[in-house]
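User: Structure with adenosine-5'-triphosphate, tokens only please.
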Amino acid sequence: MLNKENILKSLAAVKIPDLKNDLVTSGMISSLEIVGEIVRFDLVFSTPTNNHEKVKEECIKKIKNDFPNVTEVFVSIKSKVTTSAKKNLSDILPYVKNTIAVASGKGGVGKSTVAVNIAAALAKDGAKVGLIDADIYGPSIPLMLGVRERPKMIPVGPDTRMLPVEQYGIKLMSIGFLVENNVPVIWRGPMASGAVKQFMSDVEWEELDYLLFDMPPGTGDIQLTLCQTIPLTGAVIVTTPQEVSVADARKALHMFTRVNVPIVGVVENMSYFIAPDTKNRYNIFGTDGGKNLAEECNCAFLGGIPIEQGIRTGGDKGVPVIYNEPDSEHARIFTEISRTLTREIEHINESHSQFPTIEIIK
Ligand SMILES: Nc1ncnc2c1ncn2[C@@H]1O[C@H](COP(=O)(O)OP(=O)(O)OP(=O)(O)O)[C@@H](O)[C@H]1O
Ligand SMILES: [Mg+2]
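Assistant:
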């Protein structure tokens, strides 16, 4: 019989990978209506909207299969990215739901590459994304995203505020937009963290689901000050599989946990190399260093990224790999990592939740 109860029973049987409970128990079905032989409902996700068509199709197929008399099933996909429970976040970034540091202990392991490509993948999936280059002494974002324009200034009440620069749907702020090309920034530590603070307080950030921070390498004073200055939902730790990198990543991870920043997960970069001619796999920097670190620290392993010429050239050309080589395996890996990241942030927010979530209908 066609009624709400039976429709919900039918939808509860739709299999969704990565979901702890079924669609109904997870509260993802809302505004269910049956009008004659027409069924209509909203499918509410806690992650960005653009990657859920498959789930929608499965739901429609299941209902049409279980209720042959149903003539139409209308499903609207909605997104309700949860808000971080960090108390001071709403003071300094009132419209930002989640802030994520992308950090490592060792330099040159691919933080900026990972931050840029994850930001691009999230934006492509329909999330509202921002990226702050917190590496004041070595800003990479302008080059890696092919932008070097001065942010516009706008009057806001008696003050003037900067508008973030936008590229590939990502809102950006970097010291590289403000200083002349090739001029090094020579500042003392407090000035550097002061600049990052201004990137939060003096920039007109509109509503964002995720604001990423590309962190400078290391675990010294500047990094510690930064992770205490930024009200972080969590940190993503980037490492190569190599022990020298893992040892430094472990230090970075402990630095964040010491100041009560949850670890969203570990990304292993430069995990392996597939020779383009022979297709042989080479584990140039060793195997599983990042995976083992995640296991040891009881946090999520977000994925492993191969060494790929396309990742390097994409960075140099200022084009994220999901645009430069959209059909490549590494583009798929970045997309997968960004989706796993959104689910992990969701878990962090669930376990720390103190505030009601803000619903955004897309
Ligand atoms: N998976 C990869 N395959 C190929 N090249 C990569 C990969 N990841 C990063 N690179 C390249 O390695 C170099 C260092 O990467 P990146 O600048 O992202 O590291 P970083 O950790 O941000 O460095 P820093 O500590 O200086 O901020 C860049 O030239 C980048 O293009
Ligand atoms: Mg960097």
